[in-house]
Amino acid sequence: MSGPKGHPHQVPDMQGAHPGGGPQEDGGGHPAHIPGGPGSSMGGGHPTNVPGGPGYDPSAKKVWTPRLIAWEMTRSCNLDCVHCRAAARFGPYENELTTEEGKAFLKDVASFAKPIIIMTGGEPMLRDDIWELARYGTDLGLRMVMAPCGFLVTEESAQKMIDSGIMRVSFSIDGLTEESHDNFRRVPGAYASVMQAIESANKVGLDFQVNTTITKHNLHELPELLDLVVSLGAKAYHPFLLVPTGRGANLKDQEISPEDYEKTLSWFYEMREKSPIQFKPTCAPHYYRIFRQGEKEKGIAVSPETHGLDAMSKGCMGGQSFAFVGHRGEVQICGFLDVKCGDIREEPFSKVWDTSKVFKEMRAWDDYNGRCGYCEYRSKCGGCRARAYAFTEDYMDEEPFCTYQPSESAKKARDAKKAKEAAAKDEK
């Protein structure tokens, strides 16, 4: 099977797409790079009972339920990626969650939700108890998936993944050539190891998806990368746009411009119906604004019946249907927003999910600063809270890489709504 043949004009023509500086790489521990990550076919992005969702009841209260949780099982890693949000090294790292603490966390999650658990790192396969924890989560009814680096994936270990109930894995490919990928990962042989891991997964029938961190150095390669990913037998391809945190903070000059960001996301939308596998960006919330604008221009109403999970997914899911648990138990809305929201060693994850101040702020879309707070698409997009924080140190600020200007009427409607809510609160 071959993928859709991308043409140069389908992707923004990036002059200087190969900067003279060093190569970049991918944020191995972020949800977007993992199976079932934001925008994936394995999970949606909205709470239950929301406008436009199935069974919507305007009089009922929104129920926020985690659909995906990324668990950084260890920060130890056998790669040294230039964009890594965790700046991970081989380790070992002290005081990481024990087997029993991990099981207690999984049991707590299963007591109130049945999300996808993304076993990530670092390199999760460096944990001696990885198969025990995967099987424990599976037996609890959780959907376990994994984001390995590739070096440790053999036919034997891939079969162990299947035997422990792991439903899908993700691999990262950040360039068309061995040289460009290895430079991004900063470990010789990284590209060869991923290709060998993919071969092993295919041999034992383990589903996998591929992720790519998009920066100026590889933007022009997207059409060919899509063809490559399809030819390798992946179930999905989820490129994501760099979020400059961790080591990635040194790569702000490698982020594509807001204008090219818009063009690239529009290209993703154009390729949506042409790709033989699921193909959508992650860490790019305003894709869902572009998606809905495009369907509206075609006169097509977006609904779960016509568009499946795309109709129910939201761009930024952090703190709303997605959460991140670090290797020592700290809880964040996502791996890229390094703001502590709780600690599962101090209180159960379920309590953090319901009571965290930051999580509650993430769910109050009308309170976002700037354009994001009154945009017509705020409930579908939400802007990247981590990217806002990286540039302004305020996670409530507007998405810095969005060019869309909401209407003045949208701002007035939001202001009127907030005024009415404030008045109702005062009456009580």
How are strands sequenced across the largest beta sheet? 7-6-5-4-3-2-1-8-9-10
Order of helices and strands: EHEHEHEHHEHEHEHHEEEHHHH
Beta-strand portion reads: 5-15%
The overall strand count is 10
Structural category: alpha/beta
Mean pLDDT: 83
How is the quaternary structure best described?
Answer: single chain
Task: Measure the end-to-end span.
Answer: 63 Å
Mind telling me the C-alpha Rg?
21 Å
Helical content stands at 25-40%
Largest sheet: 10 strands, mixed
What's the shape?
A: globular
Low-confidence stretches: 1-46, 50-54
Discrete helix count: 13
Task: Summarize it.
The protein is of the alpha/beta class. 32% of the residues lie in helices and 10% in strands. The chain has a 10-stranded mixed sheet with strand order 7-6-5-4-3-2-1-8-9-10.
Keywords:
428 residues, alpha/beta, disordered N terminus
Secondary structure layout:
Layout: E1 68-72, H1 99-110, E2 116-120, H2 130-139, E3 143-146, H3 155-163, E4 168-172, H4 178-185, H5 190-204, E5 208-214, H6 222-232, E6 236-241, H7 258-271, E7 278-279, H8 287-297, H9 304-307, E8 322-325, E9 330-332, E10 342-343, H10 349-355, H11 357-362, H12 385-392, H13 408-427
Parallel strand pairs: 1-2, 1-8, 2-3, 3-4, 4-5, 5-6, 6-7
Antiparallel strand pairs: 8-9, 9-10
Helix pairs in contact: 3-5, 7-8
